[in-house]
Amino acid sequence: MASNKSLLMLPGDGIGPEVCQEVRKVLDWMDKRRAVSFDVKEGLVGGAAYDAHKTAITDETMQDAMDADAVLFGAVGGPQYDNLGWDVRPEAGLLRLRKEMDLFANLRPAVTFDALLDASTLKQEVIQGLDIMIIRELTAGVYFGEPRGMQTLPDGTERCIDTQSYTKAEIERVTEVAFDLARKRGSKVHSVEKANVMKTGVFWRQTVSELHKSGKYDDIELHHMYADNCGMQLVRNPKQFDVIVTDNLFGDMLSDVAAMLTGSLGMLPSASLGAVDEFGRRKALYEPVHGSAPDIAGQGMANPLAMLLSFAMTLRYSFDLQEDADLLEQAAQAVLSRGIRTGDIMAAGAEKVSTAQMGDAVCEELDKRAA
Ligand SMILES: NC(=O)c1ccc[n+]([C@@H]2O[C@H](COP(=O)([O-])OP(=O)(O)OC[C@H]3O[C@@H](n4cnc5c(N)ncnc54)[C@H](O)[C@@H]3O)[C@@H](O)[C@H]2O)c1
Ligand SMILES: CC(C)[C@H](C(=O)O)[C@@H](O)C(=O)O
Ligand SMILES: [Mg+2]
Question: Which PANTHER family did the record assign (predicted)?
C-alpha cells in the first residue's frame, strides 16, 4: 500500500542489525493490525558502509536521510575499524548524519520501569518512579569545534587539540527545546556546564539565564549545575531532576550514567531532532543510546528494547502516532512485568530470552492490546 510516511533504516554494525530486525517485526505488525504502513528504505552506515564503499556513509545514503521523514539508526563501530583514517571510521558516518541534518536536540529519556527495579545497581527507593529527560546539544561543542588535530610546535613538541565552541544561537535553540519540553512535564530544567573552569561554560550559563529571563519561560524553574556535580547527583538522588540540558560531550557521558538508573544501556532510546520548518516538519533520527556492543554481537544476546523504544519515539515525534507509541511502550513494559529478560537485565527467577524472542514477546503483547 502506498504511504506518505518514509523511513530510512540504517542498521550499521555489531548488534545494530540485530536490534533493527526486531523493529521490522513491529513495522509488520503495524501494517497488518493497525493499517499503518511506512515506505521503508534501507542503507549502509558505519563499518558496513566502509566494507562496501570505503566510506562511513555515501552521498546517496546521506541524501536518502535528508529526504526521509525519519531515520532509524542501529549502531556503528567495532574493533576491526578502530585504526581506519579519521574521516572514514564508522563513527564519522553518524557524526555526518547529525551535522548535515542539523539534528541539534538529542532527547535521551531515562525512565525506570517498576519491573526492572532489581536490574539497576542502585537501591530501589533511589530509582523507583524515575522519569527524567536529558537533552544533549548534538551538532556543536568539542565534537565539531575547530581547530582540532595534531600540531607540531616550533620546538618540535607534538600536541593535539580539540576545541570546545558554542555560538549563542546554538545554546539558545537547544535551551528552547528544553524549556518547551519541560513545560509538558515537571516544568523544571537543570542547565549543566562547567562555568567554574570553562569560558564556554560561563557563556552557556549566561545565555540560558538570559533566555529564561526573557519573559517567555516564567513558568519554568531553572537551576544551574556543574557537570561533575550532576554526574554525582544523578547517582545520589536522580529524582531531583526533570529535564537536564547540556552540551554535546557532557550529554554523552551523563546519558550513559543515566542508563544505569534504568537497569541497562540496552534500555535507553533517543531522538535527535532538527528545527521545525515552515510546514511543521522536522528532520529526525532515532537511535538507541548504546553502541555496537562488539562483546555480544552476533550471539542473539542484545536487548532490543532501546531500539524498540526509539521506534516508539519515532511514532510520537515524527508521525504524531501517539496511541501507537503508547501501545509499544506499554507492550515493552508488560513483557518486562512477565519476567522476560535479555541477559543485561536478567534477575533471579526471570526467563532469559534472546534478542529475537524479546521482539516476539513485544509483538505478542501488542497483539493482546490491539485485540
Ligand atoms: N550510536 C552509536 O552507534 C554508538 C554509541 C556508542 C558507542 N558506539 C561504538 O560502539 C563500539 C563499542 O563501544 P562501547 O563498548 O564503548 O559501548 P557499547 O554501548 O557498544 O557497549 C557498552 C557495554 O554495554 C553493553 N550493551 C550495549 N548495548 C546493549 C544492548 N542493547 N543489550 C545488552 N548489552 C548492551 C555491551 O555489551 C557492552 O558491555 C565502539 O566502536 C563505539 O564507538 C556507537
Ligand atoms: C559513537 C559516538 C560518536 C556517539 C557519541 O559520542 O555521540 C555515541 O557515544 C553516542 O552516545 O551516541
Ligand atoms: Mg555515547
Answer: 3-ISOPROPYLMALATE DEHYDROGENASE
How large is the average pLDDT for residues 129-154? 97
Tens-digit pLDDT profile for residues 346-367: 988 999 999 999 999 999 999 9
Strand pairing class (340-341; 105-111): unpaired
Q: Taking CB atoms and a 6 Å cutoff, what residues make up the pocket around ligand 1? A: 15, 75-78, 91, 94, 265-266, 287, 290-296, 302-303, 306, 344
Residues 189 and 57 in one domain: no
251, 297: one domain: no
Q: How remote is the CA of residue 178 from the centroid of ligand 1, in Å?
A: 26
Domain stop point among 210, 244, 262: 262
Q: Write the ipTM.
A: 0.98
**Domain shared by 80 and 41, yes or no:** yes
Domain assignment present for 361: yes
Q: What is the DSSP track for 46-89?
A: THHHHHHHSSSS-HHHHHHHHHSSEEEEEE---GGGTTS-GGGS
Q: 341 in a domain, yes or no?
A: yes
| Tens digit of each residue's pLDDT (9 = 90 or more) over 48-77 | 999 999 999 999 999 999 999 999 999 999
Q: What is the extent of the structural domain holding 10?
A: 1-107+266-371
pLDDT in tens, 202-222: 999 999 999 999 999 999 999
Ion ligand 3 neighbours, Cβ < 5 Å: 252
Question: Among 71, 245, 271, 269, which Cα is nearest to 166's?
Answer: 245
Overall number of domains in the chain = 2
- Most ligand 1 atoms within 8 A of CB, residue of 9, 22, 292 to mutate: 292
User: pLDDT tens, 38-52?
Assistant: 999 999 999 999 999
Q: Does the pTM of the predicted model rise above 0.90?
A: yes
Alpha-carbon distance values, 24 to 17, 31, 258, 290, 321 (Å)? 11, 11, 28, 19, 17
Alpha-carbon distance of 274 to 173, in angstroms, equals 10
Using CA positions, which residue lies closest to atom 42 of ligand 1? 77
> 91 in helix, strand or coil?
helix
Buried b (16+ CB within 10 A) or exposed e, 144-162: bbeeeeeeeeeeeeeeeee
Q: Is residue 6 in a domain?
A: yes
